[in-house]
Design goal:
This is (2,3-dihydroxybenzoyl)adenylate synthase. The protein is 35% helix and 24% strand. By secondary structure, the protein is an alpha/beta fold. The protein has three domains: 173 residues, Rossmann fold; 223 residues, Rossmann fold (3-Layer(aba) Sandwich), CATH 3.40.50; 99 residues, GMP Synthetase, Chain A, domain 3, CATH 3.30.300.30. A hairpin with a 2-residue loop joins strand 1 and strand 2.
C-alpha cells in the first residue's frame, strides 16, 4: 500500500489476518473463484441483459484485455463516472483484473470535481457515459482536457454509448470486442487473475464527503474493502438467494459495499441495477426479479411509502430495506416497514471505513431511534469531548474510530492526515454521536462545516467561495437547516451590491463555475451583513436561528 503515507502497523495487520478479517485475496481472484463456484447462477441484471457468474468472469477478462491494449497497467488510476448501468461493474472488475485502481466518481460531478479527481489521482483514463440525465459527459471530458492541458489530462477517455464524431474517444463496445488473451499469455504477461496485484495494494479510491472544499481520496485495499462488504453481508444474512437492487448511485460506498453490490456477489447472490430511484421503476423490478434487499436515503422514503399505498405492487419478496446516508426521522422509520412489508435497517457509515447497522432482530425502538452499531468486533470506538477525553455513554461527543477496514491515511494528503487522525491512529470522523449501553450509536450532528443534504455531503466553504464569484455578491455563508425530507437543506445568506440573485440565477452561475448541481442552495436569503462570533468568525448558528424565527 505504497500510495499512502500512513497504513496499519505490522502487528495490526497480523492480528486482522489471524482473526480471518483479511483473507489475502484480490478482487480479481475472488471473481475468478466465484465464476468457478457459481458459474451458471445469475450474477448481474440490467434491464433485459443478464450475466451469469461465468459470464461476468469472462467479461472482466475481455475488458481487462481491451484496457491493457490502451496502455492501462497495474497501479494506474482510472476515473469511473458511470450511472447505474451494468458497465460500472464490468469496468470495475476489468480494472481489478489488471491490478489498476478505479476512482469512484459520481454521475452528478462536473468539470471542477472531475478535474480535481484526475489531478489528485494522476488518472491515466476516464470512463464516462455519452449522455446521462440530459447532460453530455463527452463535452465534460473535452472541458476537463482543455483545463488540465496535455500534461495533466487523462490520455484515454472510454465512452459507454456513442463516443461522438471527432474520434478522440474510445467506444466501450470496441473495448469489449477485443478477444481476451489466452491463459498462457496472461500468465506470461503477469496479468492472470489480478495483474500481479497484492491483497494489501490499493484496490479502489473512494471520495470523502469533504469539509474544506473538494473531496479527498480514500484508498481502500483488497483486504480491507472485501472485509467491509463481507462483514456487512454477514450482518444482513446474505446468501445465494439474495437479490440486491442497486437504487442509489452504484459508485457510492453504501450501494457498492455495505453490503451492496460486492457483498451480494461475494455471497453468490444476484445484483439488479435500477436505472433510476423512482418507486415505480424500483417496484417493477422487485416484482420481476424477486428482489430481497435494497438501500435508500431518507428523501426517497416518503415517495416509496406513498407509492406502496397508492399502487398495487407485489412486494412480497422484499425482506430488508436499508436506509442510510443521513439520519432517518423516527416517524419515517415507523411507517416504512409496514408500508413495504419489510424489515427496516438503519445504516450509518463512511467511505473512510466504519459501518454501523441495526440488526435484523433488534427491538423496534432501537431500529427507529438509532443508527446501528459496528459490524466488526474489532471496530474500535471512542466518543470524546472537545479536549479528546472520553465521555460517558449517553453523552454527545465526537466519534473517533479505527479498525480493520478504516483507513489510516488519505491518498496523497499527508498534511491533512496530521489533523484527521489522532497520534495513535484513530480517525476523527467529525460526527457527533451518543453511544447507548447496547453499543448502538445515535447521530446528533457534525462538528465540521459540512451539510448532509439527503446523503449528498456539501462542503460549505467550497460553495461559499464560488458564490463570491457572482458579480452581485460581496459576502456569503452557506448554512444547513433541518428539513423533514432531506435531513438538511441549504440556505445561502448573501450580502449584495445591487439586486440579489434568485435561486435559479445562483444555480446557473454555480453550474457555469463547474459545480455539481446538488451543491446549489435550496434557498437564497439577502441580509445586510453576516453576524460574527466573538472570535470574528461568521456566526452560522445565529443565521440558522434567524431563518427558523422567520
Amino acid at each position: 500500500m505504497t500510495e499512502t503515507q500512513r497504513t496499519w502497523s505490522r502487528a495490526e495487520s497480523a492480528r486482522y489476518r489471524a482473526a480471518g478479517h483479511w483473507q489475502g485475496l484480490t478482487f480479481g481472484a475472488r471473481l475468478r473463484q466465484a465464476g468457478a463456484d457459481h458459474g451458471a447462477r445469475v450474477a448481474l441484471v440490467d434491464g433485459d441483459r443478464r450475466w451469469t457468474y461465468a459470464d461476468l468472469d469472462a467479461e472482466a477478462d475481455r475488458v481487462a484485455h481491451g484496457l491493457r491494449g490502451l496502455g492501462v497497467v497495474r497501479g494506474d488510476r482510472v476515473v469511473v463516472q458511470l450511472p447505474n448501468r451494468a458497465e460500472f461493474v464490468l469496468v470495475w472488475f476489468g480494472l481489478q483484473r489488471i491490478g489498476a485502481v478505479p476512482v469512484h466518481a459520481m454521475p452528478g460531478h462536473r468539470r471542477r470535481e472531475i478535474g480535481h479527481l484526475v489531478r489528485v489521482s494522476g488518472a491515466v483514463a476516464c470512463v464516462v457515459p455519452d449522455r446521462h440525465a440530459g447532460f453530455d459527459h463527452r463535452e465534460l471530458m473535452r472541458e476537463v482536457r482543455a483545463e488540465l492541458g496535455p500534461e495533466g489530462s487523462p490520455r484515454t477517455v472510454v465512452v459507454v454509448g456513442d463516443p461522438g464524431p471527432d474520434g478522440g474517444f474510445v467506444p466501450f463496445d470496441a473495448l469489449r470486442a477485443t478477444p481476451p488473451s489466452a491463459p498462457d499469455d496472461a500468465q506470461e504477461s503477469g496479468t492472470g487473475d489480478d495483474g500481479g496485484a497484492d491483497p494489501a495494494d490499493v484496490a479502489l479510491l473512494l471520495l470523502s464527503g469533504g469539509t474544506t472544499g473538494l473531496p479527498k481520496l480514500i484508498p481502500r485495499t483488497h483486504d480491507d474493502y472485501a472485509y467491509n462488504a463481507r462483514a456487512c453481508a454477514e450482518v444482513c444474512a446474505l446468501d445465494a438467494g439474495t437479490v440486491y437492487l442497486a437504487v442509489l448511485p452504484i459508485g457510492f460506498n453504501f450501494t457498492f459495499a455495505c453490503p451492496g453490490v460486492l457483498g451480494t456477489l461475494m455471497a453468490g447472490g444476484t445484483v439488479v441495477v435500477a436505472p433510476d430511484p423512482s418507486p415505480q421503476t424500483a417496484f417493477a423490478l422487485v416484482e420481476r426479479e424477486g428482489v430481497t434487499l435494497t438501500s435508500l436515503t431518507p428523501p426517497l422514503v416518503t415517495h416509496w411509502v406513498d407509492e406502496a399505498a397508492a399502487g398495487s405492487w407485489d412486494l412480497d419478496s422484499l425482506k430488508v430495506v436499508q436506509v442510510g446516508g443521513a439520519r432517518l426521522p423516527e416517524e419515517h422509520a415507523r411507517v416504512l416497514g409496514p408500508a413495504l412489508g419489510a424489515t427496516v435497517q438503519q445504516v450509518f457509515g463512511m467511505a473512510e471505513g466504519l459501518i454501523n447497522l441495526t440488526r435484523l432482530d433488534d427491538p423496534d425502538d432501537l431500529v427507529r431511534t438509532t443508527q446501528g452499531r459496528p459490524v466488526s468486533p474489532d471496530d474500535e470506538i471512542l466518543v470524546v469531548d472537545a479536549d479528546g477525553r472520553p465521555v460517558p455513554d449517553g453523552t454527545p461527543g465526537e466519534l473517533l474510530t479505527r479498525g480493520p477496514y478504516t483507513l489510516r491515511g488519505y491518498y496523497r494528503a499527508g498534511e491533512h492526515d496530521r489533523t484527521a487522525f489522532t497520534p495513535d491512529g484513530h480517525y476523527r470522523t467529525g460526527d457527533v454521536v451518543r453511544r447507548l449501553p447496547t453499543g448502538h450509536l445515535v447521530v446528533v450532528g457534525r462538528i465540521k462545516d459540512q451539510i448532509n443534504r439527503g446523503g449528498e455531503k456539501i462542503a460549505a466553504v467550497e460553495v461559499e467561495e464560488q458564490l463570491l464569484t457572482h458579480p452581485a455578491i460581496t459576502a456569503a455563508a452557506l448554512v444547513g437547516v433541518p428539513d423533514e425530507q432531506r435531513g438538511e437543506r441549504t440556505v445561502a445568506f448573501v450580502v449584495c451590491d445591487g439586486e440579489a440573485p434568485g435561486v435559479r440565477e445562483v444555480a446557473a452561475h454555480l453550474g457555469e463555475r463547474g459545480l455539481a448541481g446538488y451543491k446549489a442552495p435550496d434557498e437564497v436569503v439577502r441580509v445586510a451583513g453576516l453576524p460574527l462570533t466573538a472570535v470574528g468568525k461568521v456566526d452560522k448558528a445565529a443565521l440558522a436561528r434567524q431563518l427558523l424565527r422567520s
